[in-house]
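Progress note, sequence design subtask.
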């Protein structure tokens, strides 16, 4: 049997956990500041400038010019719509005017009307989608062998038999007045789609997008044509046409630039046989020999739905500041992308990484050292000594330049005294006395730039 591995003492695990917690707590208070490095690389510079240019074009052209993001906006105006229909046509048997062909819609559907016996029909029950109040009798239907519940209502009930009178010849010349007014409460702006004139302008004009924009009198044939439909086919089975009025207003300009834009399209499902078209029913009542009689008419027609939407915008300082700040921040994406390329795909990525990232150990001075620190910040005192050097005891070779003798900076060892910190190497590397007598270095080394080398 294999011997059981000894478990580490509980105190060691607790000490390791405390060290990890102290390290995380210490790292939480670290401060990171960017370090600027100029890389002489034409390809990387082209990528950087192209990314910056694209970001600037996006914000200047799309965000500020197209979207007008410097404006405060309000969507969904308060709106009212009034419609009037005018026109006269005739069929084989009569003349039809507005009172004949303009009616409110009605839907009729009978459910659970079949029965086998009287017990299936509850007397007095009223089906709101049926044709009357049930009498409690189960009677044979008009056609076929099945039975249905008898109702007290108009006889006969609708059975689909009708006389078709097509009004599609003159109907395209019917006119519809669509009176619309909108209001944007945030900006206290109101406007209507009818021109404010005292003459008989509305009695003589019809809508034209160029010459008569504020004459909202539309021919029915024009509406159907703009919706891309054939009037004869649409009038045969009926349909729903939407008139969309869009009010997009830039209130930084004058009110005359806020104009309605009309569009038209069919709203009902044209290619679905089960629900295609539009129809409604209405009745006409009269008396014959003292008995009240009615004529039930199922009419196929064209329904007009007017839909109003829009948005208004006006300059505001808050969205302008937010979008400008976003644009300036987004330019940093170019630096992020180029840094990623520089540190990942370039041949000397390790050299660039070594130059880009430095770790500075802040010295812990006594309270009486504040004047020295202030002088150091002002560049009037020598910088603190380096934490470490690669080989301080090796003398500089004769003829070697001063820049070549500078060893690369090394990270601070954990056992370094608290007075040490990482710094960029000095102009020259001194032999043994520099490393063995750090107390003499403060009096011998000078750095007129102070912390400029950090």
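Output:
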């Amino acid at each position: 049997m294999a011997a059981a591995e000894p478990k580490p003492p509980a105190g060691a695990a607790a000490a390791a956990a405390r060290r990890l917690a102290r390290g995380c707590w210490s790292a939480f208070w670290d401060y990171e500041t960017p370090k600027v490095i100029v890389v002489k690389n034409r390809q990387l510079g082209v990528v950087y400038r192209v990314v910056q240019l694209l970001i600037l074009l996006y914000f200047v052209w799309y965000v500020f010019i197209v979207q007008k993001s410097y404006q405060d906006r309000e969507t969904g105006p308060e709106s009212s719509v009034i419609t009037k229909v005018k026109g006269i046509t005739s069929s084989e048997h009569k003349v039809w005017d507005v009172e004949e062909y303009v009616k409110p819609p009605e839907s009729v559907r009978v459910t659970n009307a079949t029965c086998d016996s009287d017990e299936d029909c509850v007397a007095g029950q009223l089906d709101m989608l049926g044709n009357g109040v049930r009498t409690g009798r189960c009677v044979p239907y008009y056609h076929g062998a099945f039975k249905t519940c008898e109702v007290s209502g108009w006889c006969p009930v609708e059975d689909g038999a009708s006389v078709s009178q097509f009004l599609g010849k003159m109907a395209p010349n019917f006119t519809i007045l669509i009176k619309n007014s909108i209001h944007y409460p945030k900006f206290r702006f109101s406007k209507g789609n009818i021109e404010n004139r005292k003459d008989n302008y509305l009695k003589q004009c019809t809508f034209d997008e160029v010459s008569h924009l504020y004459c909202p009198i539309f021919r029915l044939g024009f509406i159907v044509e703009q919706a891309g439909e054939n009037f004869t086919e649409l009038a045969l089975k009926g349909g729903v046409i939407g008139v969309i009025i869009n009010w997009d207003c830039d209130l930084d300009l004058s009110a005359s630039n806020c104009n309605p834009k009309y569009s038209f399209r069919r709203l009902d499902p044209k290619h679905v046989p089960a629900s295609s078209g539009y129809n409604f029913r209405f009745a006409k009542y009269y008396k014959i020999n003292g008995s009240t009689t009615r004529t039930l008419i199922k009419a196929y027609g064209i329904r007009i739905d007017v839909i109003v939407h829009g948005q208004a915008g006006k300059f505001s300082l808050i969205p302008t500041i937010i979008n400008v700040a976003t644009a300036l921040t987004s330019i940093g994406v170019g630096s992020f992308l180029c840094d990623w390329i520089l540190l990942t795909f370039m041949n000397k990525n390790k050299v660039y990484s070594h130059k880009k990232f430095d770790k500075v150990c802040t010295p812990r001075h006594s309270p009486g050292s504040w004047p020295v620190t202030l002088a150091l910040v002002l560049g009037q005192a020598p910088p603190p000594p380096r934490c470490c050097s690669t080989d301080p005891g090796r003398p500089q070779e004769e003829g070697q330049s001063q820049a070549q003798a500078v060893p690369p900076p090394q990270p601070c060892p954990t056992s370094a005294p608290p007075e040490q910190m990482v710094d960029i190497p000095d102009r020259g590397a001194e032999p043994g006395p520099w490393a063995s007598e750090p107390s003499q270095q403060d009096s011998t080394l000078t750095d007129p730039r102070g912390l400029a080398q950090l």
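Confidence is low (pLDDT under 50) at residues 370-381, 387-406, 410-454. Work on this subtask will continue into the next period as scheduled.
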